[in-house]
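Reopening this one. Same input as before:
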Amino acid sequence: MAMDFPTPRWAVPGVICEGVTLLAGPPKVGKSWMSLGLALDIAAGRPAFGRIPAEQGSVLYLALEDTPRRLKSRMEIALGGRPAPAGLTLSIACEPMPAGGTEQISQWLDAHPDARMVVIDVFVKVRGTPAPGVAAYDADYTAMTRIKRVADHYGVAVVLVHHVRKAAAEDFLATVSGTNGLAGAADAVLVLERARARADGVLHVTGRDVDETDYPLAFDPSAGAWSLLDGNAADYQMRDTRSLIIRYLRDYPGTKPKDIAAALNLDAGTVRQNCRRMETDGQLRRNPAGQYWPGDTATAATSDSSDSGDAPAVEPLSLLSLRHSTPDDQGEHQ
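Same output, byte for byte:
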Protein backbone atom coordinates (compact mmCIF):
# COMPACT_ATOMS: atom_id res chain seq x y z
CA MET A 1 0.00 0.00 0.00
CA ALA A 2 2.97 2.33 0.56
CA MET A 3 4.18 1.93 -3.02
CA ASP A 4 3.71 4.85 -5.39
CA PHE A 5 2.82 4.29 -9.03
CA PRO A 6 2.93 6.85 -11.81
CA THR A 7 -0.42 8.09 -13.02
CA PRO A 8 -1.51 6.57 -16.36
CA ARG A 9 -0.50 8.43 -19.50
CA TRP A 10 -3.46 9.35 -21.67
CA ALA A 11 -3.45 9.66 -25.42
CA VAL A 12 -7.08 10.87 -25.33
CA PRO A 13 -8.13 11.64 -21.73
CA GLY A 14 -11.07 9.51 -20.66
CA VAL A 15 -11.01 7.45 -23.86
CA ILE A 16 -7.56 6.05 -24.77
CA CYS A 17 -5.01 5.35 -22.05
CA GLU A 18 -1.59 3.74 -22.18
CA GLY A 19 -1.80 0.02 -22.88
CA VAL A 20 -3.68 -1.83 -25.60
CA THR A 21 -7.02 -0.54 -26.83
CA LEU A 22 -9.22 -2.44 -29.27
CA LEU A 23 -11.18 -0.14 -31.61
CA ALA A 24 -13.85 -2.33 -33.19
CA GLY A 25 -16.78 -1.74 -35.50
CA PRO A 26 -18.47 -3.03 -38.65
CA PRO A 27 -16.82 -2.54 -42.06
CA LYS A 28 -17.17 0.96 -43.50
CA VAL A 29 -18.50 2.43 -40.26
CA GLY A 30 -15.63 4.92 -39.99
CA LYS A 31 -13.02 3.21 -37.78
CA SER A 32 -10.09 4.12 -40.01
CA TRP A 33 -11.21 7.73 -40.29
CA MET A 34 -11.49 7.84 -36.50
CA SER A 35 -8.05 6.35 -35.87
CA LEU A 36 -6.40 8.58 -38.49
CA GLY A 37 -8.12 11.66 -37.10
CA LEU A 38 -6.97 10.86 -33.56
CA ALA A 39 -3.43 10.25 -34.81
CA LEU A 40 -3.38 13.64 -36.52
CA ASP A 41 -4.87 15.41 -33.50
CA ILE A 42 -2.38 13.94 -31.02
CA ALA A 43 0.63 14.46 -33.30
CA ALA A 44 -0.40 18.12 -33.73
CA GLY A 45 -1.53 18.69 -30.14
CA ARG A 46 -5.08 19.54 -31.21
CA PRO A 47 -8.23 18.58 -29.23
CA ALA A 48 -9.33 15.01 -29.98
CA PHE A 49 -12.84 14.69 -31.46
CA GLY A 50 -12.70 18.47 -31.73
CA ARG A 51 -13.24 18.94 -27.99
CA ILE A 52 -11.05 16.78 -25.72
CA PRO A 53 -7.69 18.42 -24.92
CA ALA A 54 -4.85 16.05 -25.86
CA GLU A 55 -1.16 16.40 -25.09
CA GLN A 56 1.05 16.53 -28.17
CA GLY A 57 3.34 13.59 -28.86
CA SER A 58 4.71 11.48 -31.68
CA VAL A 59 2.34 8.96 -33.29
CA LEU A 60 3.02 5.92 -35.48
CA TYR A 61 0.12 5.14 -37.83
CA LEU A 62 0.29 1.77 -39.60
CA ALA A 63 -2.27 1.88 -42.43
CA LEU A 64 -1.89 -1.77 -43.38
CA GLU A 65 -4.98 -1.96 -45.61
CA ASP A 66 -4.15 1.17 -47.60
CA THR A 67 -2.21 1.65 -50.81
CA PRO A 68 0.05 4.73 -51.02
CA ARG A 69 -2.50 6.45 -53.29
CA ARG A 70 -5.42 5.77 -50.93
CA LEU A 71 -3.50 6.87 -47.85
CA LYS A 72 -2.44 10.10 -49.60
CA SER A 73 -6.06 10.77 -50.54
CA ARG A 74 -7.31 10.16 -46.99
CA MET A 75 -4.57 12.40 -45.58
CA GLU A 76 -5.52 15.24 -47.91
CA ILE A 77 -9.16 14.99 -46.84
CA ALA A 78 -8.36 14.76 -43.13
CA LEU A 79 -5.81 17.59 -43.18
CA GLY A 80 -8.10 19.96 -45.08
CA GLY A 81 -5.22 22.03 -46.40
CA ARG A 82 -3.22 22.04 -43.16
CA PRO A 83 0.37 20.76 -43.19
CA ALA A 84 0.93 17.26 -41.86
CA PRO A 85 2.19 17.37 -38.25
CA ALA A 86 5.90 16.65 -37.88
CA GLY A 87 5.18 14.19 -35.09
CA LEU A 88 3.25 11.77 -37.33
CA THR A 89 4.97 8.75 -38.89
CA LEU A 90 3.02 6.86 -41.60
CA SER A 91 3.64 3.37 -42.94
CA ILE A 92 1.63 0.91 -45.02
CA ALA A 93 3.79 -2.10 -44.07
CA CYS A 94 4.72 -3.96 -40.89
CA GLU A 95 5.80 -7.54 -40.35
CA PRO A 96 3.56 -9.83 -38.26
CA MET A 97 4.32 -9.58 -34.55
CA PRO A 98 5.93 -13.04 -34.30
CA ALA A 99 8.07 -12.36 -37.41
CA GLY A 100 9.71 -9.08 -36.50
CA GLY A 101 6.78 -6.68 -36.16
CA THR A 102 7.30 -6.27 -32.43
CA GLU A 103 10.93 -5.28 -33.03
CA GLN A 104 9.98 -2.80 -35.78
CA ILE A 105 7.54 -0.99 -33.52
CA SER A 106 10.00 -1.08 -30.60
CA GLN A 107 12.71 0.48 -32.77
CA TRP A 108 10.39 3.33 -33.71
CA LEU A 109 9.48 3.85 -30.06
CA ASP A 110 13.16 3.92 -29.09
CA ALA A 111 13.71 6.65 -31.68
CA HIS A 112 10.68 8.63 -30.48
CA PRO A 113 10.77 8.86 -26.66
CA ASP A 114 7.92 11.40 -26.75
CA ALA A 115 5.58 8.90 -28.43
CA ARG A 116 2.01 8.86 -27.13
CA MET A 117 0.26 6.46 -29.50
CA VAL A 118 0.70 3.68 -32.04
CA VAL A 119 -2.20 2.80 -34.35
CA ILE A 120 -2.32 -0.58 -36.12
CA ASP A 121 -5.02 -0.60 -38.80
CA VAL A 122 -5.89 -3.46 -38.91
CA PHE A 123 -4.79 -5.86 -36.17
CA VAL A 124 -5.33 -9.01 -38.25
CA LYS A 125 -2.46 -7.92 -40.52
CA VAL A 126 0.11 -8.22 -37.73
CA ARG A 127 -1.29 -10.80 -35.32
CA GLY A 128 0.44 -13.71 -37.05
CA THR A 129 -0.69 -17.27 -37.73
CA PRO A 130 -1.31 -19.41 -34.63
CA ALA A 131 0.64 -22.62 -34.25
CA PRO A 132 -1.20 -25.81 -35.25
CA GLY A 133 -3.30 -27.29 -32.47
CA VAL A 134 -3.47 -24.10 -30.39
CA ALA A 135 -6.97 -23.33 -29.11
CA ALA A 136 -8.56 -20.21 -30.58
CA TYR A 137 -8.84 -18.47 -27.20
CA ASP A 138 -5.17 -19.14 -26.40
CA ALA A 139 -4.12 -17.93 -29.86
CA ASP A 140 -6.07 -14.68 -29.46
CA TYR A 141 -4.73 -14.06 -25.96
CA THR A 142 -1.15 -14.78 -27.04
CA ALA A 143 -1.43 -12.42 -30.00
CA MET A 144 -2.68 -9.63 -27.73
CA THR A 145 -0.01 -10.34 -25.12
CA ARG A 146 2.80 -9.74 -27.63
CA ILE A 147 1.72 -6.21 -28.42
CA LYS A 148 0.72 -5.52 -24.81
CA ARG A 149 4.29 -6.18 -23.67
CA VAL A 150 5.44 -3.42 -26.01
CA ALA A 151 2.73 -1.00 -24.86
CA ASP A 152 3.45 -1.64 -21.18
CA HIS A 153 7.24 -1.43 -21.58
CA TYR A 154 7.12 1.97 -23.26
CA GLY A 155 4.06 3.31 -21.42
CA VAL A 156 2.38 4.13 -24.72
CA ALA A 157 -1.15 3.67 -26.07
CA VAL A 158 -1.44 1.06 -28.82
CA VAL A 159 -4.75 1.15 -30.71
CA LEU A 160 -5.67 -2.00 -32.64
CA VAL A 161 -8.37 -1.46 -35.25
CA HIS A 162 -10.53 -4.57 -35.43
CA HIS A 163 -13.86 -5.85 -36.74
CA VAL A 164 -17.06 -6.95 -35.02
CA ARG A 165 -19.21 -10.01 -35.60
CA LYS A 166 -22.11 -9.82 -38.02
CA ALA A 167 -24.50 -11.03 -35.34
CA ALA A 168 -25.85 -8.36 -33.00
CA ALA A 169 -25.57 -8.65 -29.21
CA GLU A 170 -26.98 -6.79 -26.23
CA ASP A 171 -23.49 -6.40 -24.71
CA PHE A 172 -21.26 -4.46 -27.10
CA LEU A 173 -18.22 -6.42 -25.86
CA ALA A 174 -19.81 -9.58 -27.24
CA THR A 175 -19.79 -8.08 -30.74
CA VAL A 176 -15.98 -8.03 -30.96
CA SER A 177 -14.86 -10.57 -33.55
CA GLY A 178 -12.84 -13.52 -32.29
CA THR A 179 -12.84 -15.20 -28.89
CA ASN A 180 -13.02 -13.52 -25.49
CA GLY A 181 -9.24 -13.73 -25.45
CA LEU A 182 -9.00 -10.51 -27.47
CA ALA A 183 -11.25 -8.36 -25.31
CA GLY A 184 -9.98 -10.06 -22.15
CA ALA A 185 -6.34 -9.23 -22.85
CA ALA A 186 -7.03 -5.65 -23.97
CA ASP A 187 -6.79 -2.83 -21.46
CA ALA A 188 -9.78 -1.11 -23.07
CA VAL A 189 -12.34 -1.82 -25.76
CA LEU A 190 -14.01 0.80 -27.94
CA VAL A 191 -16.90 -0.21 -30.21
CA LEU A 192 -18.08 2.25 -32.85
CA GLU A 193 -21.68 1.97 -34.04
CA ARG A 194 -23.37 3.99 -36.77
CA ALA A 195 -26.40 3.21 -38.92
CA ARG A 196 -25.68 3.27 -42.64
CA ALA A 197 -26.11 6.72 -44.22
CA ARG A 198 -26.38 8.33 -40.77
CA ALA A 199 -24.00 11.04 -39.58
CA ASP A 200 -24.52 10.33 -35.87
CA GLY A 201 -22.75 7.45 -34.17
CA VAL A 202 -22.01 6.11 -30.71
CA LEU A 203 -18.63 5.11 -29.31
CA HIS A 204 -18.98 2.56 -26.51
CA VAL A 205 -16.00 2.66 -24.14
CA THR A 206 -14.98 0.31 -21.35
CA GLY A 207 -11.68 -0.72 -19.79
CA ARG A 208 -9.43 -1.06 -16.77
CA ASP A 209 -8.46 2.61 -16.50
CA VAL A 210 -11.45 4.17 -18.27
CA ASP A 211 -15.00 4.59 -17.06
CA GLU A 212 -17.66 2.71 -19.02
CA THR A 213 -19.24 5.43 -21.14
CA ASP A 214 -21.14 5.94 -24.39
CA TYR A 215 -20.04 8.98 -26.38
CA PRO A 216 -22.38 10.47 -29.02
CA LEU A 217 -20.42 11.45 -32.13
CA ALA A 218 -21.06 13.02 -35.53
CA PHE A 219 -19.18 12.16 -38.72
CA ASP A 220 -18.38 14.75 -41.39
CA PRO A 221 -17.54 12.83 -44.60
CA SER A 222 -16.22 15.95 -46.34
CA ALA A 223 -13.48 16.22 -43.71
CA GLY A 224 -13.26 12.56 -42.69
CA ALA A 225 -13.70 13.75 -39.12
CA TRP A 226 -15.56 12.52 -36.04
CA SER A 227 -16.63 15.13 -33.49
CA LEU A 228 -18.07 14.82 -30.00
CA LEU A 229 -21.72 15.85 -29.59
CA ASP A 230 -23.48 17.35 -26.59
CA GLY A 231 -25.99 15.34 -24.59
CA ASN A 232 -26.64 11.68 -23.92
CA ALA A 233 -25.79 8.97 -26.45
CA ALA A 234 -29.15 7.26 -25.83
CA ASP A 235 -30.94 10.39 -27.07
CA TYR A 236 -29.15 10.20 -30.40
CA GLN A 237 -29.76 6.47 -30.71
CA MET A 238 -33.49 7.07 -30.19
CA ARG A 239 -33.41 9.77 -32.84
CA ASP A 240 -31.70 7.37 -35.26
CA THR A 241 -34.42 4.74 -34.72
CA ARG A 242 -37.19 7.26 -35.27
CA SER A 243 -35.51 8.55 -38.40
CA LEU A 244 -35.17 5.05 -39.85
CA ILE A 245 -38.84 4.27 -39.11
CA ILE A 246 -40.25 7.41 -40.68
CA ARG A 247 -38.06 7.12 -43.78
CA TYR A 248 -39.12 3.52 -44.22
CA LEU A 249 -42.79 4.46 -43.88
CA ARG A 250 -42.41 7.10 -46.57
CA ASP A 251 -41.43 4.27 -48.92
CA TYR A 252 -43.88 1.70 -47.49
CA PRO A 253 -46.82 3.53 -45.89
CA GLY A 254 -49.37 1.43 -44.04
CA THR A 255 -46.84 -0.98 -42.52
CA LYS A 256 -47.15 -2.58 -39.09
CA PRO A 257 -44.36 -2.32 -36.48
CA LYS A 258 -43.41 -6.01 -36.69
CA ASP A 259 -42.88 -5.69 -40.45
CA ILE A 260 -40.92 -2.47 -40.06
CA ALA A 261 -38.68 -4.20 -37.50
CA ALA A 262 -38.11 -7.20 -39.79
CA ALA A 263 -37.26 -5.00 -42.78
CA LEU A 264 -34.86 -2.77 -40.83
CA ASN A 265 -33.36 -5.54 -38.70
CA LEU A 266 -34.43 -3.79 -35.49
CA ASP A 267 -35.90 -5.14 -32.28
CA ALA A 268 -39.69 -5.47 -32.68
CA GLY A 269 -40.40 -4.17 -29.16
CA THR A 270 -38.22 -1.11 -29.72
CA VAL A 271 -39.96 -0.33 -33.00
CA ARG A 272 -43.41 -0.80 -31.46
CA GLN A 273 -42.54 1.53 -28.57
CA ASN A 274 -41.10 4.15 -30.92
CA CYS A 275 -44.15 4.01 -33.18
CA ARG A 276 -46.48 4.65 -30.22
CA ARG A 277 -44.37 7.57 -29.03
CA MET A 278 -44.09 8.98 -32.54
CA GLU A 279 -47.88 8.78 -32.87
CA THR A 280 -48.25 10.69 -29.59
CA ASP A 281 -45.80 13.31 -30.87
CA GLY A 282 -47.67 13.65 -34.14
CA GLN A 283 -44.89 12.16 -36.26
CA LEU A 284 -46.97 9.12 -37.25
CA ARG A 285 -50.64 8.25 -37.76
CA ARG A 286 -52.22 4.85 -37.11
CA ASN A 287 -55.40 3.17 -38.30
CA PRO A 288 -57.51 0.63 -36.34
CA ALA A 289 -55.65 -2.25 -38.03
CA GLY A 290 -52.39 -1.13 -36.41
CA GLN A 291 -50.78 0.15 -39.61
CA TYR A 292 -48.72 3.34 -39.56
CA TRP A 293 -48.24 6.28 -41.93
CA PRO A 294 -46.03 9.37 -41.68
CA GLY A 295 -47.86 12.09 -39.78
CA ASP A 296 -47.91 14.48 -42.73
CA THR A 297 -49.67 12.02 -45.07
CA ALA A 298 -53.21 10.69 -45.21
CA THR A 299 -53.90 7.33 -43.57
CA ALA A 300 -56.36 4.58 -44.32
CA ALA A 301 -57.96 5.12 -40.91
CA THR A 302 -61.42 5.41 -42.42
CA SER A 303 -61.12 2.26 -44.50
CA ASP A 304 -62.62 -1.04 -43.44
CA SER A 305 -59.96 -2.83 -41.43
CA SER A 306 -61.15 -6.15 -42.83
CA ASP A 307 -60.23 -4.94 -46.31
CA SER A 308 -56.80 -3.78 -45.28
CA GLY A 309 -55.74 -7.14 -43.85
CA ASP A 310 -52.10 -7.54 -42.90
CA ALA A 311 -49.48 -5.08 -43.99
CA PRO A 312 -48.45 -5.40 -47.64
CA ALA A 313 -45.61 -7.79 -48.25
CA VAL A 314 -42.30 -6.01 -48.08
CA GLU A 315 -38.88 -7.14 -49.18
CA PRO A 316 -36.30 -7.67 -46.41
CA LEU A 317 -34.41 -4.50 -47.26
CA SER A 318 -31.25 -3.18 -45.70
CA LEU A 319 -31.47 -0.38 -43.15
CA LEU A 320 -32.27 2.21 -45.79
CA SER A 321 -33.83 1.92 -49.22
CA LEU A 322 -31.79 2.91 -52.24
CA ARG A 323 -33.94 5.98 -52.60
CA HIS A 324 -32.37 7.39 -49.45
CA SER A 325 -28.84 6.11 -49.89
CA THR A 326 -26.01 8.58 -50.21
CA PRO A 327 -22.58 8.51 -51.86
CA ASP A 328 -21.14 7.70 -48.43
CA ASP A 329 -22.76 4.26 -48.69
CA GLN A 330 -20.73 3.47 -51.76
CA GLY A 331 -17.25 4.67 -50.97
CA GLU A 332 -16.63 5.30 -47.32
CA HIS A 333 -13.50 3.71 -46.00
CA GLN A 334 -13.57 1.83 -42.76
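So the earlier flakiness isn't reproducible anymore. For the record, The domain at 10-231 is CATH 3.40.50.300 (Rossmann fold).
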